[in-house]
Amino acid sequence: MEDKKINVTLVTPTYNERENIPILVQEIFAVITDNPDIDIEIIVVDDNSPDGTGSVAEDLRQNYPVSVIHRSGKLGLVSAVMEGFGRSNRDFLGVIDADLSHDPSILPELIRGLKKYDVTIGSRFGETSKVEKWAFHRRLTSLTGVGLARILTGVEDPLSGYFFLRRDCLADLSLTSAGYKILLEILVKGKVKNHLSIPFVFRNRQFSSSKLNAREYLLFAKQLIYFALYKLTGRNKG
User: How far apart are CA 66 and CA 11, in angstroms?
Assistant: First the structure.
């Protein structure tokens, strides 16, 4: 595989990201252009955004290898990611937020890391990582959740929304989480033997606000309890 081009599908779920999605796509391909060993396609999964994000994403197809899945409503992040994965026929898959918080500059490292690792993760907690304008309450909540999830996974940032993986890590796995942290479920239930964490700058959102609310935090708490029981009962051993 060392001599082959790495063919990757990058999925980005969207809901009201019309200003952000053109910038994100431009940034991604500005980085990838300088890395001819990487071939990347983007699948936008839009949950019927009222602001017309789906139409804006369709326009990007004229200049970039972008395809768009239009869904009937706000059906959730996990199902959006899995639908994007299902549309791809490539062996290497990734996820990136559309709100510009995930810096594309580390894409080559994340993608090339798949030559040796099952999962590669953009980490907010590496030695050189930085989170821009991180409010104290958001930081406290995130660190608490990450600390608990680390116990389950041994991963530096198991709640990152910016990651890549080999398709065979999923095998026949059907992700069932109602919460927003898809990577955590993959790490707990998938066929993941090793992983690589890469520090990056978690940028401040430009034209959108966080989709997190009290309900999402409650769902995440339920996820943690479920995954802890899942591991304790040995279900991850088949």
Answer: 10
Please list the alpha-helical segments (H only) found in 42-103.
53-60, 77-87
Question: Can you give the residue range of the structural domain that contains 185?
Answer: 6-237
Q: What is the CATH number of the domain that holds 22?
A: 3.90.550.10
pLDDT attached to residue 223: 78
Q: Which residue, 61, 76, 68, 31, is CA-closest to 185?
A: 76
Q: What are the residues whose beta carbons fall under 8 Å from the beta carbon of 5, sequence distance 6 or more?
A: 36, 37, 38, 39
Q: In this structure, is residue 63 part of a structural domain?
A: yes
Averaged pLDDT, 32-40: 96
Number of domains in the chain: 1
User: Which pTM does this prediction carry?
Assistant: 0.87
What are the start-end ranges of the H helices in the chain? 20-32, 53-60, 77-87, 107-112, 136-153, 182-189, 214-232
Q: What angle (nearest 5°) sits at the alpha carbon of residue 38, between those of residues 194 and 190? A: 25
Evaluate whether residue 1 is within a structural domain: no
Q: Tell me: the pLDDT tens digits for 63-114? A: 999 999 999 999 888 899 999 999 999 999 999 999 999 999 999 999 999 9
Phi, psi of 21 (to 5 degrees): -65, -40
Helix (H), strand (E) counts: the chain: 7, 9
| pLDDT at residue 215 in the model | 67
Question: Residue 162 and residue 149: Cα distance in Å, rounded?
Answer: 16
